[in-house]
Design goal:
It comes from Flavobacterium taihuense. Keywords: Phosphoprotein. InterPro entries: Sig_transdc_resp-reg_receiver (IPR001789), TCS_response_regulator (IPR052893). This is Response regulator. Pfam families: Response_reg. The chain has 132 residues and is α/β, with parallel strands linked by helices. It has one domain: Rossmann fold. The chain is built from 5 helices and 5 strands. It has a 5-stranded parallel beta sheet with strand order 2-1-3-4-5. Strand 3, helix 3 and strand 4 form a beta-alpha-beta unit. The longest helix has 15 residues.
Amino acid sequence: MTAIMQLTLVDDDEVFVFLTSKMIEQSKLVDLIKIFDNGYDALVFLKENLGNIDALPDIILLDLSMPIMDGWQFLEEYVKINPVIGKKITIYICSSSISPVDVSRAKAIDEVSDFIIKPVTKDKLVEMIKNL
């Protein structure tokens, strides 16, 4: 299987970020992992790199509950800049929420590919990369 260039984790849960990063590194399927602990910093990064496809991630794993800018607020802003990003970025919501309201709300957003209930397994990672 071909590795992807870059995956971005947007999550403030240090344990989840640590464990998921280690699993991704061990899979050898991702060349670079970028980590942001809130949606605002991730959005600023995307805006600073509009059109610079090499700097942009192939996949974003996005938590819903974060300080400063949560996942929903990030998605509201992402939808606005998506037409000018210059690259197809696949977004997966990764949340501990099992609320059917959250799942249906996420699936109603075209830019969201899937809703994954934490944790992310190696099998799920492989599936995400295969689906690109």
